């Protein structure tokens, strides 16, 4: 299958999963995860109408997206990988949505940069639903005060939550937990589900799914 065919296949599966969950198909947005692939590999999906893309490294994204964004101004770029505060300036300059805010230091750095650059960047908070020591994300128990800090003192536009469930576990309970936390905190957006489990995530209320290899092929 070509990249265009795989993209269409993923879109069809999203519609089907949404309908099966009793949801509007356009309540689920597809973030096409293009990490490791170059502009020429990405371009067919842009030509096929894809506009929302995810990258996990600031530096890699800087190498391919500024020119594509100039060509196609309505592209929306999401940062889905861990962020160091010394990269906050570059991240705010390039990304429209930063999904991996997970600690006070990075939240402060991003808030200061967004203000300085007068950029309307939207933020998601990454939650470590499996409490995995090696994984980024705030612990579920610490989320409430962190949301309050981001919304209050830092005045950032926090829209939702994001998670990456442990690879060796059934993702369903993690998706359910993220949905519950979003509800409790009044956050409307839920970024959850990847190539292997995006249909499951849609059943649990995902408003965006991050799909890479099912569209672009193996990395
Ligand atoms: C790479 C990546 C994805 C996409 O994974 P696939 O299994 O290729 O769909 C989704 N989310 C994050 C955070 C990633 O780093």
TrEMBL record:
InterPro entries: Ala_racemase_N, PLP-binding_barrel, PyrdxlP_homeostasis. CDD domains: PLPDE_III_YBL036c_like. Pfam families: Ala_racemase_N. It comes from the Bacteria. Residues 27-218 form the Alanine racemase N-terminal domain. Keywords: Pyridoxal phosphate. The modification N6-(pyridoxal phosphate)lysine is found at residue 35. Pyridoxal 5'-phosphate (PLP)-binding protein, which is involved in PLP homeostasis. PANTHER family: PROLINE SYNTHETASE CO-TRANSCRIBED BACTERIAL HOMOLOG PROTEIN, PYRIDOXAL PHOSPHATE HOMEOSTASIS PROTEIN. Belongs to the pyridoxal phosphate-binding protein YggS/PROSC family. This is Pyridoxal phosphate homeostasis protein. It comes from Rhizobium rhizophilum.
């Amino acid at each position: 299958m070509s990249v265009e065919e795989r993209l269409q296949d993923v879109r069809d599966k999203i519609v089907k999963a949404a309908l099966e969950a009793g949801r509007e198909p356009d309540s689920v947005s597809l973030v096409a995860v293009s990490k490791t692939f170059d502009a020429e590999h990405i371009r067919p999906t842009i030509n096929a109408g894809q506009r929302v893309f995810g990258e996990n490294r600031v530096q890699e994204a800087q190498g391919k997206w500024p020119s594509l964004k100039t060509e196609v101004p309505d592209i929306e770029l999401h940062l889905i990988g861990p962020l160091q505060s010394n990269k906050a300036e570059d991240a705010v300059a390039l990304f429209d949505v930063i999904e991996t805010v997970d600690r006070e230091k990075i939240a402060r750095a991003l808030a200061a940069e967004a203000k300085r650059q007068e950029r309307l960047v939207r933020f998601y908070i990454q939650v470590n639903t499996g409490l995995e020591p090696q994984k980024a994300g705030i612990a579920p128990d610490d989320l409430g005060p962190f949301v309050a800090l981001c919304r209050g003192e830092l005045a950032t536009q926090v829209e939702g939550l994001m998670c990456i469930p442990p690879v060796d576990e059934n993702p369903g309970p993690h998706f359910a937990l993220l949905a519950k936390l979003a509800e409790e905190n009044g956050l409307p957006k839920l970024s959850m589900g990847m190539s292997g489990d995006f249909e499951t995530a849609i059943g649990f209320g995902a408003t965006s799914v991050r799909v890479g290899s099912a569209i672009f092929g193996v990395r």
